[in-house]
Specification:
2 copies of one chain form a homodimer.
Chain A lengths: L1 E5 L6 H6 L7 E6 L7 H9 L5 E2 L3 H8 L3 E4 L6 H10 L3 E4 L7 H12 L5 E3 L7 H11 L6 E11 L10 H4 L2 H4 L1 H12 L3 E9 L12 E8 L4 E10 L10 E6 L2 E6 L2 E6 L2 E5 L8 H9 L9 H20 L3 E2 L1
Parallel strand pairs in A: 1-2, 1-4, 2-3, 4-5, 5-6, 7-10
Antiparallel strand pairs in A: 7-11, 8-9, 8-15, 9-10, 11-12, 12-13, 13-14
């Protein structure tokens, strides 16, 4: 399979975590998709044993190299156009989330997808983190009985961020950018579609970061009746032991499972257990590509990619407008 | 001071935790306020060295004994009437929360309060739990800087509950009954009034408990701009090590403090610390009564009692109607 890559503003490194697990993969060319210096991406490729060419014009790259798969991690505001252009060429898409920053962009991708034979998956890499992966397996195996409520948390260090984070048009917003992981856990663990959302967010006291929301909360009713919420913030202190405090708590009729502090905390019929997870038997990039090559189905479907993106954008709209929105 | 008591359906035992710290306190009479067997309340009084009389007619008790303070813990649906009748007689009220199950009941109490010289406090006993008490002191001392977000959790074992829990009219609902603690932490830690609320709840899979909501989520914007939410459920497994999994996480511009698992988890400038709290220097009942007797101001004000009750009822209304409600 032939891969091209655009940019490394976000999590393009997922590619190189597992690219060697994809037999016969080639990386003939990369682009930065904008004025970004291409050297960091080229260096990451070289460090992993690839010698791609570089093209400033990403569309020309697609036409010249005709890749099977395109990794999209350029400017956030160009994700949607790049997805649509790839899909129009029947090139499979592996895109940083969220794949669209506006509902209009989202509809453009969906329209292109409907006419395409290609697939699209966004980088929901936290599904593959050992704790979340194993907790999800336990939930699927019935560890908590019928799921009633899911509560997720994403708390990041703010640090110093590039200027594009300061503008809604180029950053997209904290609910889509940070919250997408939490919303993905809600979608994935509940195994149900979103029914309604209300949300709140604030840009106040954001340490001079313009439009960037320093905190947000989202609250969802799922079609199955599951209640869910996400707390999202950039308030994790610089001195905290890790960058992120990622959590999900799933409570059901027969137990409660929580991922917190890199461990699984489970309470079932036999009391409380703390479980150190095993290493997952799959990784995001190779999982997607091996499915494309006809292998085992991956963890992330095209349908979920669209549903997650839509949920991020409607949650943000709910927060922007102060209304409850139905899907 | 002369105390009378009505019922022990909820937390009347708070009285006896610290009654001996109130100089000269007398307990001449109790009532169950309904058809409940009065013996458990009489026994609790005797076990604590009091020999109260019993009256079946609680209003007659008020007129006969003219207490300074009335502890109200009878049927939930009579809290409001009992509060109003006590206030009309200028008897101070120490009432199980929520003090009212409907907005109409709430307005009746407020009307009686406005014409009364007496005070009213509800049993927000968890403010006096060592972890919450000390965490609140730390927040007031600036441990997290300017507060941006508060996330609270109440998760209880369901167990087997009396029949009155099965009916909204006699139980009130899970947001007011269980959630009131979480909403009180939000009010108390944020130090701000509620501005708006949206909420969701479900009675499905409630193990045959009629109207009882097995889970609920509430999301608040505070007038100060603080974002807050509460997750509330009865899904804590019977085999869990404790009855409740009570948590609050307060994140601000300079730190994060969390009460969880009976400890305080604090991250500030110097990294993460786990703090075992000291024993508080006050307890709910005596704190209120000593203030009434002219001593140190207590932790809970009349104003907060009304604001908390109002928040519980509006959150429930938001969940019942699927709307966002402004205070």
């Amino acid at each position: 399979m032939k891969l091209c890559m655009i940019g490394k503003r976000g999590h393009a490194y997922y590619v190189f975590e597992s690219i060697r697990e994809v037999p016969g993969i080639e990386l003939p060319c990369v682009s930065s998709g904008c004025g970004d210096d291409p050297e960091p991406l080229l260096k990451m490729a070289r460090d992993n044993g690839f010698q791609p060419e570089f093209r400033a014009d990403w569309k020309a790259m697609l036409d010249e190299f005709r890749p099977d798969v395109l990794c999209i991690d350029g400017p956030f505001e160009l994700h949607a156009e790049m997805c649509a252009e790839a899909l129009k060429r029947n090139i499979n898409v592996f895109c940083e989330k969220p794949i669209a920053l506006t509902l209009e962009q989202f509809e453009n991708i969906r329209a292109a997808y409907e006419k395409s034979s290609a697939r699209i998956v966004s980088m929901v890499g936290l599904r593959y983190e050992p704790t979340f992966y194993q907790a999800h397996k336990m939930v699927c195996a019935g560890a908590v009985g019928k799921i009633k409520t899911v509560r997720a948390q994403k708390s990041y260090r703010l640090g110093t961020r590039p200027d594009f984070y300061k503008h809604r048009a180029t950053y997209g917003g904290t609910i889509p950018w940070v919250g997408s992981h939490a919303l993905d856990w809600i979608l994935w663990f509940s195994g149900s579609d979103f029914e309604s959302v209300s949300a709140i967010q604030t840009t106040e006291d954001n340490f001079g970061n313009g439009d960037l929301e320093i905190a947000a909360h989202c609250q969802f009713r799922m079609k199955s009746g599951v209640l869910a919420s996400a707390g999202i913030d950039y308030l994790r202190p610089a001195a905290a032991p890790t960058h992120g405090d990622d959590r999900v708590r799933v409570a059901g009729t027969e137990g409660v499972i929580e991922v917190r502090g890199g461990k699984i905390h489970y309470i079932g019929k036999n009391g409380e257990q703390v479980i150190a997870p095993e290493t997952p038997d799959r990784r995001l990039f190779s999982d997607c590509l091996l499915e494309l090559a006809g292998g085992r189905p991956g963890l992330v479907s095209d349908d979920e990619t669209f549903k997650l993106t839509h949920a991020c954008l409607l949650a943000q709209k709910a927060a922007d407008t102060g209304t409850t929105i139905f899907f």
